[in-house]
Amino acid sequence: MEREFHHPHKDEAFEVLKNSKTVAVIGISPNPERASYYVSERLLSKGVHKVYFVNPMYAGQEILGIKVLSSLSEVPEPIDIVNVFRNPAHIEPIIEEAIRLGAKCVWLQPGSENMEVIEKYKDKITIVWDACIGVEAGYL
To answer: Residue 54: which H helix or E strand, with range?
Structure first.
């Protein structure tokens, strides 16, 4: 029997975004056709958030004019949202690090959701899924 999971309504996702100042994007790609690129571009175009990019494959390079960091721990200020563009199999250590660093929220982009991991950590940190941060940013 499949369990039913509660997830934030899109209005709640919008509130999380509206009330945040710092977003760390995990899994940024320099490829303009990748969701991590064009969604981050949209987020940046709003000019509301300080955005950091994290991807060890591209650390030290610039994407969309922002230097890419190798890990979340390199972000030099408190993180409100850890925005994840990763395979669901790889999200647990990201959530664990977000909790360790005191981030307020982990936002799992569509395709990054792992319901077992969400269930495990939902009481330790706010987790948003089933909502695209780029779509929500369009309402800012």
So the answer is: strand 50-54
Q: What is the pLDDT of residues 103-129, one digit of tens each?
A: 999 999 999 999 999 999 999 999 999
In which residue are the tokens 């969309």 written?
Answer: 64
What is the number of structural domains in the chain?
1
| Residue 5 counted as domain residue | no
Q: How many residues are there in the chain?
A: 140
How many Cα atoms occupy the beta-carbon half-sphere of 38 within 13 Å? 7
Place of tokens 């779509």: 135
129: closest CA among 90, 74, 82? 82
Range of the domain at 67: 16-137
- 58, part of any domain: yes
- Residues 6 or more apart whose CB falls under 8 angstroms from that of 139 comprise 14
Q: What is the pTM of this model?
A: 0.90
CATH number at residue 72: 3.40.50.720
First to last CA, the chain: 39
